[in-house]
């Protein structure tokens, strides 16, 4: 038996077992959604575990540095694109130049890595390091977006359509948690009782269609 580089299970002659391969693919597919989920947490103190610290000697940053770094060019997308580059170099493929917005680049890079997963799991000695970094990245983002028990975080409905007095849409992720009779936005506090859910669904689907249309209008080269 060949041991999996992550869990030491049966890798069937390769480097990752089927379970770790499937888990890595699932985590890759989750990254674009987690990237979007981070947006409401840009404001300092809006998420993540609370910590005690000394009084600041200067004005705080207007945004959360951790979240800003994760959503920036060197954050989530940088990690994924670096692995794409490493895989292509190992396989003797020409390097590619990322293009488009950060969300578009992330979607393209995820698509490429998922496409390489059959080769990665069987033939790449760095498969274990790759799978562990993707696992850790997923866990780090989840600790900000949903620091509680992930099994109880509920079903993701979409983004909150509430508009504040300045006309800004909230945009935080709405979740229907098990047993909850009212959907409550963790960011703005807006509540949605069952009578409003049909209208809420219409709002969310409208926003998602607009986001999909905007992404389709951007250049998105998916060449391997």
Give the helix/strand layout.
Blueprint: H1 18-37, H2 65-71, H3 76-90, H4 102-123, H5 127-145, E1 155-159, E2 173-176, E3 183-184, E4 191-192, H6 197-217
Antiparallel strand pairs: 1-2, 3-4
Helix pairs in contact: 1-4, 1-5, 3-4
Number of domains: 2
Strand order of the largest sheet: 1-2
H/E element order: HHHHHEEEEH
State the separation between the terminal residues, measured CA to CA: 32 Å
Gross morphology is elongated
Main beta-sheet annotation: 2 strands, antiparallel
Structural class: mainly alpha
Instruction: Detail the poorly predicted runs.
Output: 45-62, 211-224
Number of strands: 4
CA-based gyration radius: 20 Å
Helical amount: 40-55%
Mean pLDDT: 77
Task: Tell me the fraction of residues in β-strands, as a range.
Answer: 5-15%
Number of helices: 6
